[in-house]
Amino acid sequence: MAPRAAARLESLGFGEVYEYKAGKLDWLAAGLPTEGENSGRPRAGEASRKDVVVCGLKERLGDVRARATEGGFDVVVVIDEERVVLGLLRSKQLEMDPKLLVEQAMHPGPSTFRTYVPIKEMADSMVEHDLDSAPITTSDGKLVGVLFKSAATSLAASAAAAARRMITASRPE
Q1: Residue range 149-153: average pLDDT?
Q2: Which in 16, 36, 97, 154 has the greatest CB count within 10 A?
Q3: How far apart are the C-alpha atoms of 22 and 30, rounded to whole Å?
Q4: All CATH 3.10.580.10 domain ranges in the chain, comma separated
């Protein structure tokens, strides 16, 4: 919490008050709960798939491809022991020589997005940049999941339709 808010709570008699120095965006990026007007709007972290296939740098591409195929995924996220995203394997890389190490085939340092990014913004970006999927991470680069364009565009359209219904319903006759 912000220093001013912490000081005020302490002045009201609250005993254990902590300042969250990393800030609100870090809180949001960690996928922690929020309140307020925007808290109910869909965001990238909530819409991302958590069950995606992951692998390490030293695995063989053929083994990883088999797991991806079995799971029905055309994308694999390369992570380290702490779940920090190191790279990405898309269909093109997954089709390479199965004897290659993941490290040799992966797309290193892929663009990642934070959990708090509004779903409409994600959908627009994914359409604009022709991304079928995007890794969603915490602010320290740890994998949360993968957001697929189909889910992002569907959720964005649903949210827009709901907003239109609310606006229409609140208009005086």
Answers
A1: 92
A2: 154
A3: 11
A4: 31-170
